[in-house]
Write a structure and sequence with these properties.
About 75% of the residues lie in helices and about 0% in strands. It is mainly α. It has one domain: 23S rRNA-intervening sequence (de novo design (two linked rop proteins)). Helix 1 runs antiparallel to helix 4 (about 90-115), helix 2 (about 35-55) packs antiparallel against helix 3 and helix 3 (about 60-85) runs antiparallel to helix 4. The longest helix has 27 residues, at about 60-85. The protein is elongated, with a radius of gyration of 16 Å. The two termini are about 30 Å apart. About 25% of the residues are buried. InterPro entries: 23S_rRNA-intervening_sequence (IPR012657), 23S_rRNA_IVS_sf (IPR036583).
């Protein structure tokens, strides 16, 4: 849960990433590639949407659940990016840039997930 007066780097990064995904998907559909690009569009923009939901979470469990979904969407995004590259729809340069951004988001989300899911053990003294 965040304070809306503070800059939220994850929200900013995931939003900027979503804009890049939208742009790439527009390009892919202009090449008449509709199926894979639709999958990429859904998961690539879902990362930021779930981060936005996490920022409005009503509990720590709710926050953690939304971050978990965002993390899984980032993994799925990397899968579709690889598939698009290997099927020659996505150029190496575009792939590298997008994959690096998706991977950065994955690492950030996983770090947050670890810190919200692992509770320190309390001593029963």
């Amino acid at each position: 849960m965040t304070d809306f007066n503070k800059k939220n780097i994850l929200a900013d990064k995931s939003y900027q990433f979503a804009l890049k995904i939208v742009s790439v998907c527009k390009e892919l559909t202009s090449q008449k590639e509709y199926i894979l690009s639709k999958q990429l569009l859904k998961c690539g923009t879902s990362i930021g949407a779930n981060v936005a939901e996490a920022n409005g979470a009503i509990s720590n469990a709710d926050f953690s659940a939304k971050i978990s979904i965002a993390y899984k969407e980032s993994l799925e995004t990397k899968y579709w990016l690889r598939l698009l590259k290997d099927s020659n729809y996505l150029k190496e340069e575009s792939f590298e840039s997008l994959f690096e951004s998706a991977d950065e988001l994955s690492r950030i989300l996983y770090s947050i997930l670890k810190s919200t899911r692992i509770q320190p053990k309390k001593d029963n003294w």
